[in-house]
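Researcher: Structure prediction, please.
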Amino acid sequence: MRCAVLDDYQGVALANADWSGLDVTVLREHLDDPADALAEAECVVIMRERTPFDAALFARLPRLRLLITSGMRNASIDLAAARAHGVTVCGTGSAKTPPTELTWALILGLARHLAVENAAFHAGGPWQSTVGVDLAGRTLGLLGFGNLGKAVGRVGRAFGMDVVAWSPNLTAERVEPEGVRLASGLHDLLGQSDFASVHLVLSDRTRGLVDAAALACLKPSAFLVNTSRAPIVDAEALLEVLREKRIAGAGLDVFEVEPLPLTDELRTLPNVLATPHLGYVTEANYRTYFTEAVEDIHAFLAGEPIRQLWRSVTYR
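Model: Predicted structure follows.
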């Protein structure tokens, strides 16, 4: 079976699983239009939502029989189109801990100005130029309280933070056992937060949810962190509040276009601490992704596909 692995930025896919017996091509550079590179592929392995697979792309890949994504949810795959073109779509396991850890790396980096101080250290700059923000006694606002939001909240409580949460269907009964308060709404949540962290699933209901009016509720001393999905926060509204320093800063791991263009204004703002979508990029997760991708391939070839994705979600 001819297999292609897309967007293997670090060049680690082959080392993280036993691909023997398979004809595998690894593509390390991101392709906005991968159809020509995948023309002969019968199986394609993709990483999360780096490469959208819509009806138009499926139509240009007549040889494709199997599409595998890391994780069991990928909103950039048109599952109805996959079925229409006879393509089986499978997923893999994915740990919840890596995004939680990166969320806290961003929060701590913002609070203690780590990027600024580290740059000064290596460049022979001033010895101490910033004053850190205390976490103990501050309010952590969680926009979303699923597995990831709940885990982030537990760490916040360990730091001595007051934790408040909100999502459209969240109830006090779900948050109170965790020692967390329920905000009355999105604006109430953001208005209380010293650090607001986004942990919602992207959907038609959550796209653009954090708009200009919501961002205006944040205090000038507040930080916004997004390790979930970029379109949940209105990009232009966020740029405006950062540009005008109406909030203290933002910690971002997700972007509307990835890789982020070199000319994007976010790259120029000193109050932005950003990472290139590293939330799930850890050794253990990559072993799981690629090992289970190979398992998916062999199960498909044996006529018994495993970990199939059925639910259709429109991403764009």
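Model: The CA atoms of residues 212 and 237 lie 5 Å apart.
Researcher: Thanks, that helps.
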